[in-house]
Amino acid sequence: MKDYRVRSLKVSFLLIPLVLCLMTSGCYDAIEVDELVYVVAMGLDSGTNDNVRMAMLLAVPIAVGVGPEPGEVDKSTTMITVEAPTIYGGMSIANSMLSKKVNFSHTKLVVIAEDLAQKGIEKYMNTFTRFREFRPNTYLGISRGMAEEFLKKSKPILEANPAKYYEMLMESWKFTGFSVGSTLSSFYRDMRSNDGEAVAALLDVNNLEGSEDFEKVYLSGDYDNDGKVMEGDYTAGRVPAVFDSKSMSMGAAAFRADKMVGELNGRETAMYLTMSGSLRNAYFTIPDPEDQYSKEPKEMNFVSLWLKFARKPVVQVKIVDDIPHITAHIFLEGSILASEGDKDYSTGEGLKQLEDYSAEYVRKDVLSFLEKTRDIFNSDICGTGRKMKQKFLIWDDWVRFQWEEKYQNAVFDVIVKVAIRRTGMIIKEAPM
Q1: Mean pLDDT score, 147-168
Q2: Which positions ≥6 away from 287 have C-beta within 8 Å?
């Protein structure tokens, strides 16, 4: 009898782990990788009868490459475009045409057409937020033309992997300052907030065929930078550049709630990053300070600087006679990369002159940008309202304060300090 009990216990100890393994297995609803087709990028345009037109750029795994074998870049993606009342409806139509199930878990970029953004994109953002296949760090961009056309003209010339191409394109803001790293999660957070507004990267197709077309860019633009067009005075699609891939990112789209209300060019976007504390590092080109004080007309020279934050900007907000007074203290440091003139800015008075001039140059740009957000956009895209909200103890009091309306009468004061830490490979410049 004793041996029987011992054997029963042994059998029980063996059966219990086996039963637990069977209960925890999830193979009944498993999907093999080769049964899915992954969407690399998706574009949304206005369709007929108020439908949404969905353009989905699908990865072709065999063309991308298997293992160490490189694939054919031109055949690494294929596109399908459908129309439906909702995004889920479009997914169902696409699934009825494809041999694999559409999956968005590896989508790198969502592009929304400008005309759609001007009408309001809250319903689409709600879809992206609820559906678990859309990752929060998926990049979001606004196309000045059709989103479908933007995806068609995109060619990953320097990347074999199309997903990597879109990721690197949207991360260029980290070293240029001419765009923003807007994601689905950051945009949705700012769109829903009542202490700031959202921005998104501005995208477009550059249709210039050759360098002889550059003059068209200058003639079509409205530039105001002391009579000289600088490298940041452009928006996507209006840049003097020619490349095999026509898609590009420059500038930002400003929103009020879920509606697009205006555009920022590359230079204004750099000021947005500076004001909001998001600037990583960037090249700044400024006129030669010595030329500004010269009374003799001559060819304009420039000084190129590499700037970054010495420390995060300090923003202060106070209310005087029911009017917000916003003061921003910005601290930058950097290096001299190039100086075209004869003035030595590496030491002494020359260095101090360059620091003061570059600080004033940036200050004017930041102030002009802030006034544009107030007068044209009526939108606090820098989120300065967060500083004001900290002074309220009760949420209902903050809501009744109506920051969005008060921002339209805001008064700005910008203080910028620039410290040149390094002068490049030259420690002193000798005159010719």
Answers
A1: 85
A2: 226, 228, 300, 301, 302, 303, 361
